[in-house]
Amino acid sequence: MTNENIIEEHETEQILKERIKNIIQNIFQDEEYGFEVYIEMKSAPILKRFNLSEGRIRDKNNPEKNFKKKIQLSLEEAIKEKFIETDKEYDMAENVADDQNKFYVITQNEDYNPFNVTQSELNNIENYQANERENARGIFFRFEHSGNIFWAYQFLYQNAIPNRKGMGFHIIPSEGDIFEELKKPILLLSKRIDLLIIGDEIICDKIDFMQKNFGFQEFVKSTAAKVVNSIQNLELVSNLDKVSAYIGRSKLLYAKKMMRIKDSKVLQKTSEELYERVTTVPRWQGVFNLDEENHKLVINTYQQVENLIDLLDERYTRSDITGEEYDTSAKKWIAPIG
To answer: 41: closest CA among 165, 187, 163?
Structure first.
C-alpha cells in the first residue's frame, strides 16, 4: 500500500481536507481501478467475498449489461458527492468535542481498531452465501488504483430488510405487474456510503453512528487517558484524582473535551514556564488554587479541570491593540508569526 497516511505535525484543516480528497481522486482518475465487494459477517470468518454478476457482455460503454460495473459506477458517484463535492470541512477526531458538522478523521491504533479486517489476507477467503443474510453486518467496497487503496463501508440496518419476516414481494417478469412473495432474505445494496477507510484512518461524519455500532467511546476514553498521562508527566498539577475522575464520568462529553489537548504545543512547555504564566498573565490569575511552595496547580473541582483543559488547549488569544480576548479553536491550526 502506498497511501500516505502520516499526518504532518501542523497539518491544517485545509491540508487535511485536500490530502483526503486527493487520495480519492487519484483512485478515480480513470475507470481502470479495481473494484471488489466483501461482506462483513457478525461471526467468524469475519470477511467473505461477495461475487457480483458481471453479465455475459463486458461493455464499459453500457454498464446496464454488467451488474458489477453498474454498482461500481453508482458507488463512485456516491463517494464523490459525499466526500469531494462538499463544503464540509475535515478535522481530526480529537476535536470532536466541538460537535461540528464535519468529516472527522479517526486514526486507528492498538486501542481502537474497528476495521482491522481491511488489513486481512484476501486470498482464499470464502464466498458469501445467499442463506447467510441474517449473519451479515455490513458491506465493504474495495477500490484500488496503481497500488493505492481505500475501502468504503455500508452498514446493513436490520430494519431495512424488506422481507425479514417473510413479507417481501417481487415481480414475476413474464406475467407483468404480478407480485409474488419472497421466501428468502435478500441483501439490499444502497447508493450510500457511511464511511471510508484509508490506511489506518477512518473518515466519517456521523460520530453517533460510530458510537452506536463501532465502540467509538473506546477511542475517546483511551485517548483521554493518554492525555491525562501527558499532564502527569508535565508535573504541573499536584493532584490528578479530579482530572482522572473527570474523564471517567458517565457522559462521554467530558472525555471528548480532554481529547482536545492531545497534540497541544502547550504540553511541550515546562511546568515552571506554565506556572509563571498562570501567576502573571491576567487571563489565568486567580483561576486555579496554587501550591506556591512547589509551584504547582491544585485541582479540586470539575470546573478547575475544564480551566486546566482551556489552559493547555490555548484556545484564547488577545489583541495587542484593543486588549480584548477571544476564544477560538482556529488558533491551533495557525502557524505562529516568526
So the answer is: 187
Q: Write the DSSP symbol of residue 5.
A: -
What span, in angstroms and rounded, lies between the C-alpha atoms of 111 and 221?
A: 10
Residue 150 CA to residue 315 CA, distance in Å, equals 34
∠ CA(237), CA(243), CA(247), 5° rounding?
155
Q: Within a 10 A sphere around the Cβ of 2, how many other Cβ atoms?
A: 8
Its pTM surpasses 0.70: yes
Quick one: which of 271, 184, 189, 182 has its CA closest to 234? Answer: 271
Sequence-distant (6+) residues with CB within 8 A of 216 are 106, 112, 207, 210
Find residue 153's DSSP bridge partners. 140, 195
Alpha helices in 241-301 (DSSP H): 241-247, 252-259, 271-280
Distance CA 307, CA 312 (A): 9
For the segment 239-287, what is each residue's pLDDT rounded down to a tens digit?
999 999 999 999 999 999 999 999 888 999 999 999 999 999 888 999 9
* Count of C-beta atoms within a 10 Å radius of residue 317: 13
Query: Which triple of cell numbers denotes residue 226?
Result: 493518554
- Report the SS3 class of residue 155: strand
Distance between CA 32 and CA 35 in Å, rounded? 9
**Pairing outcome for strands 325-327 and 296-298:** unpaired
Report DSSP state, residue 334: S
SS3 category, 86: coil
Phi, psi of 11 (to 5 degrees): -65, 120
| Crossing angle (nearest 10°) for helices 216-234 and 252-259 | 50
Q: What Å distances lie between residue 286 and 256, 278, 298, CA to CA?
A: 26, 8, 12
pLDDT digits (tens, 9 = 90+) for 73-93: 999 999 999 999 999 999 999
Q: Are 107 and 95 in contact, with CB atoms under 8 Å apart? A: no
